[in-house]
Specification:
15 helices, alpha/beta, Rossmann fold, globular, binds iron/sulfur cluster, 352 residues, single chain
Length: 352
Amino acid sequence: MDLKQFRNPEIVKNLLRDIHTYKEPIKIMEVCGSHTMAIGHWGIRKLLPDNIQLISGPGCPVCVTPSSLIDLMSGLKGISIYTFGDLIRVPGNNGSLEEARSRGADISIVYSPLEALKNAEKNETVFVGIGFETTIPGIAYTILEAHRRKLTNFSVMPAFKTVPPALKAILSSQDIQLDGFLLPGHVSVILGEEDYSFLVTDFNIGGIICGFEPIDILLGIKQLIDQKKNNLPQIDNEYKRVVSVRGNQTAKMIINKVLQPIDAVWRGLGTIPSSGLGIRREYLDFDASHKYGLEITDNEKESGCRCGDVLRGKIIPTGCPLFAKTCNPSNPIGPCMVSSEGSCAAYFKYER
Ligand code: SF4
């Protein structure tokens, strides 16, 4: 597929002309951190009229990871810890995993959880299981593989999150009044369209599943404007080239085989019922929380960081008094400035 067609300047101009004819205020949440980055990268926020407000949501897995997970992982002694890259710089209450590594902890970055299995053939190994629906199937598959190989040295610390319960929590809290969602592209590859139907039935609010090119995002905004104009909220799929109605059934099957819904702690959002996934009884030997008696809590040291308000859409990153002053990508105070999908990092890079 030639992506240039999704960057065609004439189509961009036509879409912007249509969008600018709408004069009512409209507040749209882009749920996914990759959308926040794409919106900044393409300069879309600056092209929109003032009545259209795009606010970032909780869809950055590193940003919603509570400090206590970092503390628990850096506290494990004599065990090899494997993690995805962004997490290593996220501050915990006692420093980051990177700092723990500089003090001698055995912490490695991997691109695939399967890489950790090689180490588990020799040493006690824990993989830090963070992420949304996009990364969860690969980690669940790794547990199945460890089970098949009868590994006794491997476990996963389950800190998974699922997107729909977080959207439910944001809408139920009534902290902000939203008019629609730009729904995450990658997560929806797994979920499909159907899992978002509660937005319309329970909250009377619509959403568009979007890709990450400028025309994807502008089409999503225009469709949400049309829904609002016609008072017809619905779930539309602008990203049909990748996202199907029912999602990836194989990935869902693997998730359901290994994991089950549990309440989960989100940094800044607290505990959200059934918004996480724990490891099923059949695979408990591979559950690091069970093996080492670890519990994730919402214990956050006061640092002045307002990631929680950013993730709930209550403020935009520039509304944090620390933004670009004491907090910047070289010296991140909170996770939203660390991650390549973090709202504060996106605003620092593109929106100042
Ligand atoms: Fe937290 Fe820094 Fe973002 Fe402020 S600018 S909310 S301190 S990450």
